[in-house]
Hints:
alpha/beta, Arginase, Chain A, 11 helices, 10 strands, homodimer
Amino acid sequence: MTMHGSRLGIPVVWHEDCLRHQPGGEVWLGVREDGTEVPERARVILAALTAAGAPVVPPRPHDPAALLAVHDPALVGHLATVWADWEAGGYPADYGRDRVVPYVFPTAAMLASLPLRTPAAIHGRVGMFCYDTMTLVGPGSWEAIRAAADCARTAAELVASGQPAAYALCRPPGHHAGRSGYGGSCYLNNAAIAAQALRAAGIDRVAVLDIDAHHGNGTQSIFYGRPDVFYGSVHVDPGAGWFPHYLGFAGERGDGQGLGANQNIPLAPGSGDERWLDAVGQLCAQVRTAGADAVVLSLGVDAAAADPESPLEVTADGYRAAGALIGELGPVAVIQEGGYDLTSLGDYVAAALFGLQAGQAAAAAG
Amino acid sequence: MTMHGSRLGIPVVWHEDCLRHQPGGEVWLGVREDGTEVPERARVILAALTAAGAPVVPPRPHDPAALLAVHDPALVGHLATVWADWEAGGYPADYGRDRVVPYVFPTAAMLASLPLRTPAAIHGRVGMFCYDTMTLVGPGSWEAIRAAADCARTAAELVASGQPAAYALCRPPGHHAGRSGYGGSCYLNNAAIAAQALRAAGIDRVAVLDIDAHHGNGTQSIFYGRPDVFYGSVHVDPGAGWFPHYLGFAGERGDGQGLGANQNIPLAPGSGDERWLDAVGQLCAQVRTAGADAVVLSLGVDAAAADPESPLEVTADGYRAAGALIGELGPVAVIQEGGYDLTSLGDYVAAALFGLQAGQAAAAAG
């Protein structure tokens, strides 16, 4: 990676259990596709970062309390047991039901004025937690979900203990998972777990910056009413027909004590580097104004030009420049989110981290 | 049909457009199946009823106001245009997307505290209205949905104008459709449209009795806060793992002014005639206590022993006896709901209507 002119010093927090989640595809508009959130993503990123010289460190083991600080115990319990329940339910795998997929969803259109109650059967219950048909669960999913959360928490703790930056190679990703529900190929919210870990370590003001190509509706919803964690996101406009469709609009500014601590910048498809970096710059300016003692960066690289899941057309140089802008803000715990083009994924992540390293060095040099 | 010892005099309201809805299957737990809510159902029932001597009458044409009395205009608008929107969206039919199937659903787990807003793209928007993956829309669906609603309304108007009983051969069925949403193979709520038509014709107190094997969550939700329309249902216990999973429990008794005007009797799988008829009798007793000037009967015959969609094991004689009990209550507009065993479906519907006719005759005699 001589193109970056230096060695990547940011530690990579990684556990092989993150490979154990094999969603086996996703169901989009009633049809099962191969899907793009595959274990190979993590392998490609790990190869690029180790080739760049980054040290790899293991996560600290699982602490349930760290999950429960941002997630409903019912969601965590569901994710821990849903595969076993599915197997016990006897849904015939030979008819394609080899993964957990919901079919009925307790929306307001269904429930009307009645309260939500938990269904007895897992095939009815799963739609209470999982809000789409894209986010399948299989035999090794829970182990990977837990390992990804551990990686996120460990990266945050490294930063809290003085490391300027640490990167969690989380898979599955997390930013679409809310306090009580999962979707968008996300199960537990790794970025929220990291932000909460920073708060728990005594850091007063945390900013989550989300540069994944999609809005991080889960992270937004978890911190929507809180003034201590700012959430800012640049993403493809859900109003242009993109996931998560229902959320991610500019008018969503937070609620109650959190009013003003949420900022979305939706971009038109095809925006490219200039408009994207302008938005990243606006978010950084807001973080400076709001004040943040540490940053969590939700690093999805699916804004990449070659990515099959978004139309934002951002280059690797764009990600490097974004990393530099964010690195100037202070200490950063980086959480891997999306990014699905296996040929360019590793280079994009490396570019963002090299940019971050350079931005932090420049800021330190004053 | 000499086994019934008489000719069926109840008029059958029927329109051929009800055959135009060809859902093309249903997606259950991520896999598309052939489905059981097929046009042949209506043909089989029509053949049995005409063989029994019943007169067939056409529905009065569409009156949008009649739909809007029980449904949100946004739902009606969605159903009227969703297929055209889908076609315009260019979802490739050659990959199996020949029908409208949602993939993301704005549940509380997704939205958290944020308000529901209508997505721009139809593939995101459909999950706001359709709460499951079982209820597909295709080219002729709207014409059938509208025709079924017309049949229901016409049957109610026949009853309001003095006919002791009228039967609407509705397809698709309706009792899972709520004010703002659809699911469970139902789109508009034919029974609710009939009940509202009775009210609009000046009938003060209406009772909807629902003997479909599944809970009519849509009808319940539409009238949940109203004292003028009683809703009573016997169905397989959703707590035993049956659709609609989230609703249909005994504790749901209505709300506000409607408190006490809702009664669910969930039954265990395998209950059979005796327990089922006991529940029907309890519902009839409640209707007598509450007082009703006319009854809407949601006649699903999927409690049939041979039905593939429920485990209640009720015989045709059971349905005849239920019809007799309900016929004794007064004038009845009968709305076809479920029933999926094509070999016995016609006989079951005929048995229920002969029972109803006999019950009304007995009550008139004395």
